[in-house]
Amino acid sequence: MYKCALILAAGQGKRIKSNIPKVLHKVCGKEMVNHVIDNMRNAGIEDVNVIIGKGAELVKDYTKDRKVFYSMQEDQLGTGHAVKCGKDFLQGKDGIVAVFAGDAPLTKIETINNLMEEHISKNNSVTLLSAYVKDPTGYGRIIRDGDEVLKIVEHKDCTEEELKVKEMNAAMYCFDIKELLVSLEELSNDNTQGEYYLTDVIGILKSKGKRVGAVVTDYEDTIGVNSRAQLAEAEEILRNRINNIHLDNGVTLIDPKTTYIGTDVQIGKDTIIYPNNIIEGKTIIGEGCTILQNSRIKDSIIEQGVEIQASIILDSKIGEKTTVGPFAYIRPDSVIGKSARIGDFVEIKKSIVGDNTKVSHLTYIGDAQVGSGCNFGCGTVVVNYDGKAKHKTIIGDNSFIGCNTNLISPVEVGNNSYIAAGSTITSKIEEGDLAIARAKQRNIKGWVNKKGLMK
Ligand code: UD1
Ligand code: CA
Fold it and tell me: Active site located where (predicted)?
């Protein structure tokens, strides 16, 4: 059976009070609309069409890696109208379409699969997802006659009786494509909000004697984010889910409540994560690592047995058994070797640092290629910027860089060479040489006394 998906993401989201479209707000580090796209793909749906409108260019930009189609909804006249704007995408297709709201990121893959299986096995025209909730304020209500679903009524259009219904509409449906296209033509906007509601399609299909089904799931699956409070609620639910997966996989989280791990992060077993860590993007952490308190790691590869403390690591790679921090800042495109040491107040930018090299304190390394087995004294600065352009520094293996050295780029330091502390290096040092580049010391006898400064 052919399957495709429509994701509704054209609204601004007034209730979230934001300058950017609601669906671009992040939950556990990923935009809500991208969660929904990924959920569809994980449920085996390849063809995904996103309905865009408010902030269309931004939404396109944020979803561009995911290879989806787009339809434009110029004016946001309601969810039914939004689906109608996807007509070109649906026309001529034969099969089922999953229609999901772009502001509901938490649906489990098994729930989406259940919805589609129920739809296909019961030969339904539409199958909707619902949940029972203590306080359904704001949600559409599922109106049933016994077991049968009759229609959905939006909160603002409910009678006193209908308001008492606790079964809410998740705004996640599976439709027969042809039946949906026909019914969309019959929608009207004769309701409290003057909008074309997608929810009315359910009643339309029912009144035509078509098969309408429902799958009930738990509320957490269905949460739609309309406000900042619901955004925080969604964040907490997903955070717990993600953390539980890592706990199940053999990762120790000392305090899951203060551990923030993105949806797509992978962590090996026996890694221990201390409180207040943020691990984001496509980060992969190996086995047996220790991530001590207060680090942020984004889109990075951390090999096994690494120890990181109170540091920031962005788009970089850290080799096995290396230690980082406290208070190190490793900026994008850096590759640190194995059993290396990047110590306190060290900043590394777009540089390669070899195995066993020690950069223990107060050092800046930018646009450099550093060999293995080197030792950096405290306070070394790679002077990579001349006010106009960035230049490259190359340092060979087993070099010793004395404390407070300046390496004026572009410059080259050979293998097995030494630099005396306090040197400002401007020209190449050959292998095996010592460079000293500082003024000779001069002592002036009795100067303090002569100046009357002796205490
Ligand atoms: C919708 C459902 C409601 C359900 C709730 C679940 C309708 C009429 N109501 O209400 O039954 O309980 O979701 O969360 O469908 N959108 C467009 N174009 C539009 C309007 C909306 O693309 O013209 C998009 C929005 O960007 C959003 C999604 O559709 O991602 C849902 O819209 P929203 O206004 O949040 O609907 P709800 O009021 O939450
Ligand atoms: Ca909503």
Answer: 361
